[in-house]
Task: structure prediction
Amino acid sequence: MTPESTLFYRQNLWLKLGTFILCSGAAMLAILPHLLMQIVLFCLYFTMDYTIYLPLIKGLRKLLSWFAGYWLLGTILGMDFVQMLTFTVRILVFLCCSVYLFGRIKLEIFFGDLRRLRKYSWFQKIVSLLIATMLFGKEFTDQFGLLRDQNRGGNRGIINVVSEVISTCINRASQIEHRTSQLTDIEPLRLERISYANLMGIVFLSMSMLIYAI
Result:
């Protein structure tokens, strides 16, 4: 199955962005039953394209330690259980919204949805900056993980490891710059606005808003 054939890759960026804003905003003010229904709806919706569960699971794994610390601190301070549960589920809703928006993006389709903005130089500069930042961030994370594993049980401190990682990233700046240029010059892929993928996105958004309207 190619990325272009999956449901969430083919949905219009503006539709996904609108869903992210509306669902995240509504979740900030919603009560626990509404939040739980939204989680269930997301889980059902994601079954239409099972590939999106991979970034969702990765996000959950990163949040587990934070949730453990939050619940431990809340228990020690005697916080209300329902308030803690509501906050936790609210974060999970935000995670689902974030994965829905960012978890399945292909640059060709991304540029196709934003093709009218590409003629502006300021937009090209912003896109280049974002791509370069993501590439630097990925390079830093990869190098840090590699050196941390190599130094496991060693005598190098964290400051020395970070300094070496930063030095490595700086030395690879020209490669990252070249890769950034390649990505920003990708030919946009234009998809039909009236499609099954977008129709399912509209249905999901309507059902989400119906949940918060109950």
User: Anything to note?
Assistant: The chain has a mean pLDDT of 82.
